[in-house]
């Protein structure tokens, strides 16, 4: 007889905390009370697609966090994580039977919004939903920083590196649409795809890659000892192309932290990025990591105005101590109560929790009867 797999209470609490932190990272940077439409095309925000209002076969549309709460409560929503430069569609022409409750005066359409199959609940090159009830393979989904589609790790055409959550990824399709990115990839990207031999130098082994990267940095950054003519801004992309280092142009590409700052920002390259709709790559604050950091900072500021602590400040010293002691007693008793279930391997039910608080109330009444005071 096989032993039944069990999950401890600590495992459940840790998983809940992890999910809460992930949700907070996505949502804390967006306003949950006010429609984002008046802000125009928001640099980055949490978005949702409503399959109840805009079903597959119709026009794609996205709604902001606040509208997902206030205008689409009870609807079937697809969570789109975050997307850049998007203006809330809620209640515009695409929603024939719904008017936005938060910002009803909207243009018929937001012409600069970009849509994908994500808005109909499918992702990756395989165009499958997530989670996929028919997919038994455990696989993480990774977002391309250019097209912002989500792709399965096994469909990226490359080995997914360690600490992928700290890196940005550009899918193979977006790399091929913008071939100049392959030049940057040969010098700046996380090692993963094989690097071809250097055409001009007769080739170097992969063990010399780090030395070569140091040489690239020397080429890119002008020395302060050079003459004024030599120190004039040059095109970094052109310099990298002249080095001749190549990378096999297949599979997705992962980029390390700070890689955007190494892209060329000369006038020619800025025009090239603008024409390709990639100007955001020169903006490090465009990253999801920067968005999440902003959200965490906002959350910490809000935590500084805890309503419970504000209420305690308005009580006298005796009342404060009574509340604190009561809270600590309940916390200790609840911990001991749950510990018994963890020790015996039993499941905590709603009836068990209800019984615990009924016992708490009974003890409070006994203390009131005995002392004539309630706290």
Automatic annotation (TrEMBL):
| Reactions the enzyme catalyzes | S-ubiquitinyl-[E2 ubiquitin-conjugating enzyme]-L-cysteine + [acceptor protein]-L-lysine = [E2 ubiquitin-conjugating enzyme]-L-cysteine + N(6)-ubiquitinyl-[acceptor protein]-L-lysine
Question: UBR-type zinc finger positions in the chain?
Answer: 33-105
The alphabetical list of record keywords is: Isopeptide bond, Metal-binding, Phosphoprotein, Transferase, Ubl conjugation, Ubl conjugation pathway, Zinc, Zinc-finger
Q: What GO terms are given for molecular function?
A: ubiquitin protein ligase activity; zinc ion binding
Tell whether Phosphoprotein is among the UniProt keywords. Answer: yes
- EC assignment: the record states 2.3.2.27
Q: Cite the CDD domains for this sequence.
A: PHD_UBR7, UBR-box_UBR7
Source taxon at top rank: Eukaryota
Recorded GO cellular component terms are:
cytoplasm
Which is a Pfam family this sequence falls into? Answer: zf-UBR
Q: In which pathway does it act?
A: Protein modification; protein ubiquitination
Q: Which InterPro entries match?
A: UBR7 (IPR040204), UBR7-like_UBR-box (IPR047506), Znf_FYVE_PHD (IPR011011), Znf_RING/FYVE/PHD (IPR013083), Znf_UBR (IPR003126)
Cite the UBR-type domain residue spans from the record. Answer: 33-105
Query: PANTHER family, alphabetically?
Result: E3 UBIQUITIN-PROTEIN LIGASE UBR7
User: Main role?
Assistant: E3 ubiquitin-protein ligase which is a component of the N-end rule pathway. Recognizes and binds to proteins bearing specific N-terminal residues that are destabilizing according to the N-end rule, leading to their ubiquitination and subsequent degradation.
What is this protein called in UniProt? Putative E3 ubiquitin-protein ligase UBR7
